[in-house]
Amino acid sequence: MKRNNIFIRLLALIIASIVLVVGFTGCQSNKNDSASAFRTLDEIKESGKIVIGVFSDKAPFGYVDENGKYQGYDVYFAERIAKDLGVKVEYVSTDPASRVEYAATGKVDIILANFTVTEERAKQVDFALPYMKVKLGVVSPDNALITDVKQLEGKQLIVVKGTTAETYFEKNYPDITLQKYDEYADAYNALLDGRGDAFSTDNTEVLAWAIQNPGFTVGIDALGNADTIAPAVHKGNDTLLNWLNDEIETLGKESFFHADYEATLASVYGEAANPDNLVVEGGKVE
Predict the structure, then answer these.
(1) Cα angle vertex 75, ends 275, 187, to 5°?
(2) Residue 105: closest CA among 34, 40, 54, 42
(3) Of 3-7, 80-84, 161-165, where does mean pLDDT reach its minimum?
(4) Cβ distance 144 to 150 under 8 Å?
(5) DSSP codes of every residue in 116-167
(6) What is the strand order of the sheet 62-64 is part of?
(7) How, if at all, do strands 198-202 and 132-141 pair?
(8) Which CATH number fits domain 41-131+230-277: 3.30.70.260, 2.30.300.10, 3.40.190.10, 3.30.1510.10?
(9) Which of 66, 64, 56 is nearest to 114 (CA)?
(10) Domain assignments of the chain as residue spans, ordered by start
(11) Cα separation of 40 and 49, whole Å?
(12) CA distance 30 to 24
């Protein structure tokens, strides 16, 4: 009986020791994971590569062309960031709903995906200075044009999950039925197929889309408060954030973002938009 009691006590001690070791290792692992959730500016430079999250289906801001190459207003900026850092750029395709997650978990170093600055998002990521300003717009078929929000009552409004359009209409017009999609391509296809009556997202995008799709018009071209679009990084990644802010201020002195507009957006908008109403230089909103 004594031998059995001794054996049981020894077994209990061994189990307790294992639990303590595993618990300590877990705590250390969590601590290390938290500390390495983002890469500092020096670590990015040492690696020779910066990872940037962009859209792959949101022309003319971020998209993949017929040759499989990323293009667009955000991509033009991303290329300059990589050049000035002296590193190569690796693009990661993201969708609206995953932008916060990709930055907050360190899947990318920077999110450059037409990312509108909001108070809620700023709790989870750090935004750099803005490089564009925007409002919401609503595009619909010419034969059933929506020119006032009241006309959306009793109709299906298409939005993309995780966008400011979704948040705006849920908060301000809860009686309007929202038809939600994960991807921009799916949302536009729903509008083209007649599954919804109208589609709302940034006015910069719907203006460009309507120009390229005869039979559709942006009947509401400025809805809600004026917002800004900015790069986002992991919360607390001050070295990268400070570098980005300095970069945006420096680029403003050479009117870089107007050059970006001319290279990527001017051919799309033509005379339908004034670049001064969209572009932000040096991070200063006028």
Answers:
(1) 80
(2) 34
(3) 3-7
(4) no
(5) B--HHHHTTEEE---SEEEEEEEEEEGGG---SGGGGTTSEEEEETTSHHHH
(6) 57-58, 62-64, 70-71
(7) antiparallel
(8) 3.40.190.10
(9) 56
(10) 41-131+230-277, 135-227
(11) 12
(12) 10
Tokens encoding 255: 């009117």
Local structure of 1: helix, strand or coil:
coil
Phi–psi pair at 49, nearest 5 degrees: -150, 140
Token couple for 196: 């919804």
SS3 category, 224: strand
- Lookup: tokens for 264: 């990527």
CATH C-level class of 135-227: alpha beta
Residue 183 is classified by DSSP as S
**Same fold across 41-131+230-277 and 135-227:** yes
Distance, in Å, from the CA atom of 123 to the CA atom of 118, rounded to the nearest integer, reads: 9
Bridge partners, residue 218, by sequence:
139
Give the Cα separation of 118 and 244 in Å (integer): 19
Tell me: the pLDDT tens digits for 130-141?
999 999 999 999
Structure tokens at 183: 């991807």
Phi first, then psi, for residue 213 (nearest 5°) are -130, 85
Average pLDDT score, the chain: 89
How distant is the alpha carbon of residue 212 from its chain centre? 23
pLDDT tens-place string over residues 242-277: 999 999 999 999 999 999 999 999 998 888 788 998
Which one is predicted more confidently, 58 or 252? 252
